Amino acid sequence: MRVVMFGYQTWGHRTLQALLDSEHEVVLVVTHPKSDHAYERIWSDSVADLAAEHGVETIIRNRPDDDELFQRLKEVEPDVIVATNWRTWIPPHIFTLPQHGTLNVHDSLLPAYAGFSPLIWALINDEKEVGVTAHMMDETLDAGDIVLQRAVPVGPRDTTADLFRKTLELFGPITVDGLAEIASGRTDFTKQDRSKASFFHKRAEEDLRIDWTWEADELDRLVRAQCAPYPSAFCFHKGKRLEIVEADVSQERYGGTPGRIFYREGDGVAIVAGAEARRGRNRALLVKRVRTEDGVELGATEYFTHMGGYLTSRP
After folding, report:
1. How far, in Å, CA of 315 to CA of 116, rounded?
2. Which residues form the Formyl transferase C-terminal domain (predicted)?
3. pTM for the full model?
């Protein structure tokens, strides 16, 4: 089939490479301009550069809603559009233009985790598996009929970077296999159960702030979700910002006030956590590595030279 691809960052790069290696003809690529946004500098392999290496015409757009782009899409006469990590709304007159519509590839197991940052939110929420969904685009974001869906397990100590690497391997194959389903003439794809749908927003600074009333296992997942190269989860110590780079859940139970710097355990320092910590039934967050506001990374036992005092959510 003649394919137009809308894509961005490493997800789009990996998808475009799979299309270029397939039997299909990529006739046009549409991608976003480079961005200095913190999250868009991560996993930033260039779709435009890859297209240029293969002599594929590329159009740069923030939003694909202008007449010039629409006219060019009509001229190249695609059989299908593929969209991967496209960051803005694609209007109906574009996604319905090709005979076979538009196949969108999203990094969650839809209908759950539609929208943004699905791997981070899924890890924070203790999901046991994550995955990728290829679905037909319709007027509601990430809500179209499912063509194919593939899952991978979440390991007990996985970070978001681990989940990225696992799910990235699915993007190329699910795109090419999804196009095979479409090319076969199938149209009886699986309707999404909207009663199970959830929609998440982009991560922002406030979403990284540690609330010590969360349980230790929840804070552990937050730290693993906000791993490098993402911005780290943070709190404050003596009025200065302190990022938690690595942590775990303590073996022992510690009671008291959430945020209390309590006790050395192994290679970490136990920080009291959880709204019910005063009852002495809670595990603590075992902080192992921190980063100070001037960028110095230290082991927790090196940074916390004395026990006592508090980590707080705000200065």
Report:
1. 29
2. 205-305
3. 0.93
| DSSP output for 155-186 | PTT--HHHHHHHHHHHHHHHHHHHHHHHHTT-
What's the pLDDT score for residue 39? 65
Length of the chain counted residue by residue: 315
pLDDT at site 38 = 66
Residue 75 tokens, joined:
């001229």
The CA distances from residue 225 to 58, 161, 197, 247, in Å, are 34, 8, 22, 11
Measured CA to CA in angstroms, residue 296 lies from 59, 105, 243, 290 at distances of 42, 39, 10, 8
Q: Are 93 and 81 in contact (CB under 8 A)?
A: no
- Dist CA 191 CA 293 (whole Å): 48
Q: Residue 298 pLDDT more than 90?
A: yes
Neighbours of 130 (CB within 10 A): 26
Structure tokens at 127: 């999901």
Token readout for 152 is 């991978």
pLDDT recorded at residue 24: 98
Cβ within 8 Å of residue 295, ≥6 positions away: none
H or E element in which residue 42 lies: none
Amino acid symbol at 106: H
315: its two tokens:
């200065």
Indicate the helix (H) or strand (E) that contains 261. strand 261-265
Give the Cα separation of 273 and 213 in Å (integer).
6
φ and ψ of 160, to 5 deg: -60, -35
Report the distance separating Cα 96 and Cα 102, nearest Å: 7
* Residue 44: pLDDT band with limits 50, 70, 90: confident
